[in-house]
Amino acid sequence: MQKIFGGKSTTPKKALLLGAGFVVKPTLTFLIDHDVEVTVACRTLESAQKLCKDVKGTKAISLDVEKAEALDAEVGKVDVAISLIPYTFHPHVIKSAIRKKVDVVTTSYTSPAMVELEKEIQEAGITVMNEIGLDPGIDHLYAVKTIDEVHKAGGKIKSFLSYCGGLPAPEASANPLGYKFSWSARGMLLALGNTARFLKDGKTEEILGHDLMSVAKPYSTGYTGFAFVAYPNRDSTPFKEKYSIPEASTIIRGTLRYAGFPDMIRCVVDLGFLSQDTRDFLKPSSHPLTWKEATAKILNSTSSSEQDLTWAISSKHSFANTEEKSRIIAGLRWIGLFSSDPIIPRSTPLDTLCATLGKKMAYEAEERDLVFLQHRFEIEHADGKKETRTSTLCEYGDPEGYSAMAKLVGIPCGVAVMQVLAGKMQKGLLAPYTPEICDPLRNELREKYGIDMVEQTVA
User: Fold this and answer.
1) For the chain, N or C: smaller number of CB within 10 Å?
2) CB-based contacts of 85, cutoff 8 Å, min separation 6
């Protein structure tokens, strides 16, 4: 039913929410709380129905975004499409939105495939807003804030470091990796194989994926209760232009993990457990091998005894010292690689390992996660004075509600959707890299939802 206030129609806005991941639910409930009628679409109807359960004002449907006609039919019914599916499928959604002249919001990085559609997006007169979750998202909002403030005062950003970690809370981190999976174990492990590029002291450096854990180093955030290590990820070099800091000689964006994580991962890589090659003995079977038998075959060990497996591991991986060897061997034992437990065969070493890790390292119902995000700016002020400034976000999940990660991706996404629906965003292909876009988003997140980064001068 239409409501009329002051002669203007306030017909409820409608949204198509695509996806089944962990951030969908907080985005969904946010929109429902703001009187948006939401259709949740997943490949399987069951997944969509599960998300809509006990949430009034929602509709669940099955939808394959690769089927253009079916996608167009649903996109054409709404005011905005929110694409929380894997980034490779976003172009399908955007093309449909162009045809139907409907706005789009995603939490993913703006991809080259999206950039190719920029002219069509502009001609359609729609908004396609990307990179508005946590990382990317909240990180941009506060990077742009400090950079803009410094530049307006005549200063320069000489160095910019930004590290983010999605981790178990310290009390939930008691496993060899100090990590738990709130999303795909496969996705996390594959990301460790990506090449990292960054700017350091005026020079572009590149670290190949298989060497990434070797450059992980202890990282002091100033919060001494945390023992973090940090390593670069993805390509940080475009941020010289995106953040408008041509004066910066160092720009590194990366990942935080607890101490001990890189050493364990380096060993797992050296042993071949992240291989994506199909192995006959790992193919699904009614009589799967035990883990110690599978480990022996992967390592080409002479037998599956723990003594021989340990010898084979030592021949493939160099340990820094006896203490590290004992710790890592104990970690592999904890994972179950020396056990008589049957594997969950998934054809490749990577997928077979992930099947076990996904079970052993899942969050228990009462456990919390932690998100820690920090920017570090080296500033040279107009009068020549130097300053080191940090912006820090430390957020714990709520076992009775949403995880910190789900909240910090879902709520910014929801706020952006509402701003798009209210006509507060310009048209075109957008991401939060300007004060004009960032300021309203950041202010609303801080004032209404308590999502904020604490700024400090530390030197």
Assistant:
1) N
2) 18, 19, 65, 93
**pTM for the whole thing?**
0.92
For the chain, the residue count is 459
Tell me which DSSP letter residue 302 carries. S
Name the catalytic one among 135, 139, 263, 351. Answer: 135
Q: Which residue has the tokens 């009628």?
A: 37
For the chain, the distance separating the N- and C-terminal CA atoms, rounded to the nearest angstrom, is: 59
Q: Distances from the Cα of 207 to the Cαs of 37, 226, 267, 317, in angstroms?
A: 46, 26, 18, 20
Q: Rounded to 5 degrees, what are φ and ψ at 197?
A: -125, 140
The 3-state DSSP class for residue 221 equals: coil
User: pLDDT at position 6, please?
Assistant: 38
Per-residue confidence (pLDDT) for residue 188, from 0 to 100: 85
How far apart (Å, rounded) are the C-alpha atoms in residues 452 and 459? 22
Residue with tokens 């023992």: 227
- What would the two tokens of residue 242 be? 């995106």
The amino acid sitting at 442 is: R
| 3-state secondary structure at position 47 | helix
| Cβ proximity of 8 and 388 under 8 Å | no
How far apart (Å, rounded) are the C-alpha atoms in residues 123 and 138? Answer: 29
Task: Compute the CA torsion angle 374, 441, 240, 23 (nearest 10 deg).
Answer: 60
pLDDT attached to residue 182: 74
Q: Average pLDDT by consecutive 10-residue portion of the chain (459 residues)?
A: 40 94 91 96 95 92 97 98 94 98 97 97 98 97 98 98 97 95 81 93 95 95 95 97 98 97 95 95 94 97 96 96 97 97 96 94 94 98 98 96 95 98 97 98 97 96
CA distances from 363 to 171, 172, 173, 373, 409 (A): 12, 8, 10, 21, 18
Using an 8 Å Cβ cutoff, are 87 and 111 in contact? yes
pLDDT at 2: 37
- The conformation of residue 391, written as its DSSP 8-state character, comes to E
* Interatomic CA distance for residues 307 and 333, integer angstroms: 12
Give the Cα separation of 17 and 32 in Å (integer).
12
**Integer Cα distance of 68 and 58 in angstroms:** 23
**122: closest CA among 426, 419, 424?**
426
Q: Does the annotation mark 139 as catalytic?
A: no
CA–centroid distance for 23 within its chain: 10
